[in-house]
Amino acid sequence: MKDLLNILVEKYRPLTLNGRVANYIPELSKMNPASLAIVVSDVASNTFSAGDYSMRFTLQSASKPFALALALMDNGADVVFDRIGMEPTGDSFNSLMKLETFTSLKPVNPLVNAGAIATTSLINGGSPEEKLDRLVALIRQLAPGCNIGFNRDVYLSEKQTGDRNRAIAYFLRDIKAISGAVEENLDLYFRQCSIEVDCITLATMAKTIAMDCDDANHPIPRQYRRIIRTFMFTCGMYNASGEFAINVGFPAKSGVSGAILGVVPKRYGLGVFGPALDHKGNSVAGVAMLAELSRELDLYLL
Ligand code: GLN
Q1: Which of 80, 197, 248, 256 is catalytic?
Q2: Is 199 helix (H, G, I), strand (E, B) or coil?
Q3: Any catalytic annotation for residue 61?
Q4: 262: CA distance to ligand 1 center in Å?
Q5: Is 256 designated active site?
Q6: For residues 19 and 285, is the Cβ–Cβ distance under 8 A?
Q7: Which pTM value belongs to this model?
Q8: Does ligand 1 come within 6 angstroms of the Cβ of 165?
């Protein structure tokens, strides 16, 4: 496995030249576009790493499945899906388009920005800090012993420039998809995006989501793990989710930091980092590595 991962990093690193680092969050533009890493963690807890796997990066949208898990645990599925839809979208992750045209006047799914901001509003806690602490505590349980940090510079950078997300949040309040203090809700959303990990942590988190056991000690109940994996499969790679399902074939969630968290149910958790992105916001070399890994190990679910 380790040899295969080393080959993938070597083969696809030149592809990073075809992508661009996200710059709409100014602090993210400081990342090195040539960075590339992949880590595989199997359910027996063996970990295989290649490339720049000790580099740290923010979760960005890869935080969304975990915020969803917490919202589900806090409220139950009926309440969550009364507010947020379950359908994939062909629009970009930060689009406002479907908010007005989607039949039920609610965000289309929990993994686009609008749905994630609505999800965040359903997390219990007295303040954004307390809610973030609960989310970080959940992630720590998913990746015990790993170093889960917080990148304050990225958080402040997005908070200062995140007008599109601000527009989404105010629109959501107007259509009553969120209630309460909009700026506090946004603050928590920006904070969750700035949780900082490395690829080993990402793979360990993914491996815990890949477990399908009905174990009462698992931090996320089995029925909610299934919901999260299904959303990752249908919506996790933004408006490239269909193509990713065909070419890679298992659930994943990407973030504009270049993170991809991949879940092969009952088998593997994958952590990828490659900040050079394609025009849809996915790691260009990361997606290529996962497609080849899937071909080599036959990881297609369907
Ligand atoms: N913080 C980012 C944003 O809201 C997350 C988006 C992403 O990773 N696709 O724009």
Answers
A1: 256
A2: helix
A3: yes
A4: 18
A5: yes
A6: yes
A7: 0.96
A8: yes
Looking at 12, 53, 155, 189, which residue is catalytic?
A: 189
Q: What is the pLDDT of residues 256-283, one digit of tens each?
A: 999 999 999 999 999 999 999 999 999 9
Q: Which two tokens stand for residue 180?
A: 């309460």
Task: Please determine, for residue 96, whether its predicted confidence score (pLDDT) is greater than 90.
Answer: no
- Is there a catalytic annotation at residue 238? yes
129 exposure class (CB count in 10 Å sphere: 0-12, 13-18, 19+): exposed
Domains of the chain: 2-61+196-296 (3.40.710.10), 63-193 (3.40.710.10)
C-beta separation of 24 from 284 below 8 A = no
CA–centroid distance, 113 to ligand 1, in Å, is 7
What is the SS3 assignment for 142? helix
Cα–chain-centroid distance for residue 169?
19
In the structure, what pLDDT confidence band is assigned to residue 102 with cuts at 50, 70 and 90? Answer: low
pLDDT at position 124 is 96
User: What is the residue-averaged pLDDT of the chain?
Assistant: 95
| Residues above pLDDT 90, as percent of the chain | 90
Residue 41 CA to ligand 1 centre (angstroms): 25
Ligand 1 pocket residue status of 193, Cβ below 6 Å: yes
Ligand 1 in reach of 85 Cβ (< 6 A): no
